[in-house]
Amino acid sequence: MSPVIRTVIFTVVVVGFRTLAVPYWLLPRGTRPVRRASASGWLLIAAGIALYFACAFWGFALRGRGTPLPLDPPKKLVVEGPYGVVRNPLYWSVALVLLGEAAVFHSVALADCAIVYFVVASLIVLVFEEPELRRTFGAEYEEYCRRVPRWLPRLRTK
């Protein structure tokens, strides 16, 4: 099965669960998007979806020949596109969608969910992903870490 198809399955099952099912459970029944200030929320959601597709499909599936699923990682280290700006843009994409949903519904519970998601993602990166990437890609990954920050882009002045 192609990496694109495997990424579609991962996206529907895992990312869909995090960004659709969990918020649905957290919101009170009958909750509707709030008209005021929801434009910024929709913008965050759109940005998160676009970033996700750039990372998961263009980056992992097409360039890296793998998926975001840790059991089926890319075979090639992806350092282009969003991965040339920060090392973990895929986590940012999901967090942006969650924060956008929090804004659209004016929900503190969804904002808390986004914060918890980001804390858990940070732990996964530190405890599992980075050590595994060091084992798999060695010096190439070490050089990448020296050039590209983990979470926040460097502001360069020239």
Secondary structure elements and pairings:
Blueprint: H1 3-26, H2 38-63, H3 89-105, H4 108-137, H5 139-147
Helix pairs in contact: 1-2, 1-3, 2-3, 3-4, 4-5
Number of helices: 5
Overall average residue pLDDT: 88
The radius of gyration is 17 Å
Q: Could you estimate the helical fraction of the residues in percent? A: 55-70%
Largest sheet, in brief, is: none
DSSP, total strands: 0
Low-confidence stretches: none
Q: Strand share of the residues? A: under 5%
Gap between N and C termini: 46 Å
Structural class: mainly alpha
The total domain count is 1
- Which descriptor suits the 3D outline? globular
Helix-strand pattern, N to C?
Answer: HHHHH
Describe the overall structure.
There is one protein chain. The protein is mainly alpha-helical. The protein has one domain. Helix content is about 65%, strand content about 0%. It is built from 5 helices and no strands. The longest helix has 30 residues. The protein is globular. It starts with a helix and ends in an 11-residue tail after the last helix. The model has no long low-confidence stretch (mean pLDDT about 90).
Please sum up the structure shown.
With 158 residues, this protein is mostly helical. Helices cover 67% and strands 0% of the residues. Helix 1 (3-26) packs antiparallel against helix 2 and helix 4 (108-137) packs across helix 5 (139-147).
List its salient traits:
globular; mainly alpha; 0% strand
